[in-house]
Amino acid sequence: MTGHTADPNTDSTDFKMQLDAWLEQAEAFARNGDYLGAHARARHAQEEVERRVPCDSELGDELRALVELALRHYDGLVTSWQMQNVTRHAAFVARERAALAADQPDQPGAASLARRLRYRRWRTALANGFKAPSPGTRAPRPASHV
Description:
- By secondary structure, this protein is an all-alpha fold.
- It has two domains: 12-103, Methane Monooxygenase Hydroxylase, Chain G, domain 1 (Up-down Bundle), CATH 1.20.58; 110-141, no CATH class.
- Helix content is 70%, strand content 0%.
- The protein contains four helices and no strands.
- The protein has helices at residues 12-31, 35-52, 58-103, 110-127.
- Helix 1 packs antiparallel against helix 2, helix 1 packs parallel to helix 3 (58-103) and helix 2 (35-52) packs antiparallel against helix 3 (58-103).
- The longest helix has 46 residues, at 58-103.
- The protein is rod-shaped and about 105 Å long.
- It starts with 11 loop residues before the first helix and ends in a 19-residue tail after the last helix.
């Protein structure tokens, strides 16, 4: 983007104060952890500088450099924040997969556990003199469990 030639009567002090306010707002966003908001505010400041300040002025070069520095700073914060999110997500996925894997191959499934318990009850019932139940019925419990 190129700036237009500004009217010499334009009050550059007011614009510089406005620009400082935008950059302070960007810093406030960053302090509160809103790096995307900080980047957006600095981007807005850059657009306003491009729109309102002449290309060939010394003040314009100074303001562009100031805003460019702020944008690079917030770009770095956004990139760092995004990498932290990726790392947190990867840790979460690994933790969830580990939790799922812990329940499956090494641990007996619920069906095999139920079969073993049923077998133990039948074996105990037979050892205590009860006759084996017919298929599809439950084994009687010993009197000590009633």
